[in-house]
Amino acid sequence: MAAKSIISRPVYGTLSPQPGKHHLFIADAEGALAISDMAAKAPAGFFDGAEIDFIPGPDNKHVATLKALKPAQFHLAPSFASLLPRLKQTLGNAHMGLRLYLAGTEGLIGQAMQVALEAGIDHTSIQTEHRGSLARRMQCVHCKGITENVTTQPAACSHCGLLLLVRDHYSRRLAAFQGVCINAEDRSEIPPIEEAFP
Amino acid sequence: MGITFRKETFRDDFTFRNSPEHIRRFPFPFHEDAYMYAVNIEPHVVGPKGSVLENLIDVDEHYVAEMQDRALVLAEDPLRCQSLPHMTLAGWDLLELLMEQQALGYPEHFTLTRDGDRWRWINRPLGIDDTFTFGDTSTLPYGPMEYITRQSQGDFCILDQRDGNLWMDAGMVTTQADWSLDFDIGMNFFEWHAPVPLAHEKGIFTRALKFLTNIQQGKPARRLNWTMTINPRLDTSPENYHKWGPDRTTVTPENVGDKVHLRVELQSFWRLPRSNGIVFPIRCYLIKMDELVTQPKWARRLHRVIRDLPEELATYKGLTRYRPTLVEWLSKLDDGSATSPGFGPD
User: Fold this and answer.
1) Per-domain residue ranges for chain A?
2) Catalytic residue among B6, B223, B263, B300
3) pLDDT tens digits, residue range A27-85?
4) Which residues of chain B neighbour A114 with C-beta distances below 8 Å?
5) What is the pTM of this model?
6) B169, B188, B242: best mutation site toward chain A, by most A Cβ within 10 Å?
7) In chain B, residues 197-226 whose CB comes closer than 8 Å to chain A
8) Quick check: is B336 in a domain?
9) Architecture of domain A23-130
10) Which ipTM was obtained for this model?
11) Which of A186, A198, B227, B315 counts the highest number of beta carbons within 10 A?
């Protein structure tokens, strides 16, 4: 779990079973383990009304672990982008009382929360647990392009190429950290690029 | 007698200047020889004639040029003006407030006449004479917030009040001191202030939020904030930081007086009647060092404030690179004698 820094930086918790009949889980990679850990504390029959949408990592791990929970619906998606249309429909059609659980990388949690906010779900009602990579989703404040899976500090914008300081300042609306040119005042200053968000 | 509006620029050749009368009325933000954050909020009431507080919404000699600069910024980057869908009513509230205040303070320049919902707005400095239906967005060339803030000096943030917090849900922000409306829109009071150092630990924002959520209609409040800017550039946005940032490397002992500007924000806070939102105008005043030091008290005091500023604040305000040059230059104008209490020049 990432260290706490400034107030706009999201703070994640530990998934816990919420009261209710309908539960939607969105997870990627190591996030599967947050679900299986939570399942150990869940009452019998908890997953009878649950849907799990899972984006496995490149090694395809944890699929069997999640299937073993026997959720009412289980969906494997190759990427968040491919999951998006389904997720929008599910949240758009959801009744009051649907419980949402997000687990995995910050990028996954942030993007799923962005869709949930657009569907009118209050962010404080959403269960989140960070697992796996600390890689960040970053918006370049200059060109507005989003760079996915940023692991270094500073990091180059994948759109305009400026070298950006990856700030802790975070926008839920954009599901992104802010990137600001690190050598704007003197472009000849090239700070060392270090692995900061492994 | 009306205001003589200056023809000047805030970019490229930077012809912005203050007239001698405007130097005297500059809202110098330091009441003592040191600076630290405080909840320096006070009632926004009318002040002395000839000061920037003579009217609650101040219009000055830079009005026309500032509005031209705003139009240039918006043409380059329309994202500087945004309003979330639930904020249209608050936009009408703001339109009413700014039209009333500008017409009240400067009748020779602005006239508002109302016949029920049919309103006629005359803005002589900008050559505008529009008749529209209050509340009907289709009768204006822009949304109500954009329409009136293209005709009003300063940035404007409209805050929605809910869940005991204030949410930055609309704004016109083209003269900002390095924060992005596009990034911060939709954030609550604590979130958009998150990057400010030291103040959270001092409980500043908790107390400020408590104060602001209790602001009543007809009883606005205000505070001053400040930073420094190289060249009289209004658009010091993070969006364009890679374009204006290099200015900070151009300060030399020879050009300090012309290039370095004190930038003061007169922030005011007003409850809006229909939407129950809060509008937060951030009015920016610039003064170059050569102009500021014509008032010896201000020269002495600014020297002491900048010299003794905590390092975190100097970094946050972006002064690090040129602070030594500035302090050295100002030190020659500080004979060590006492300064009188209060903001004003002697």
Assistant:
1) 23-130, 136-195
2) B223
3) 999 999 999 999 999 999 999 999 999 999 888 899 999 999 999 999 999 999 999 99
4) none
5) 0.90
6) B242
7) 200
8) no
9) 3-Layer(aba) Sandwich (3.40)
10) 0.87
11) B227
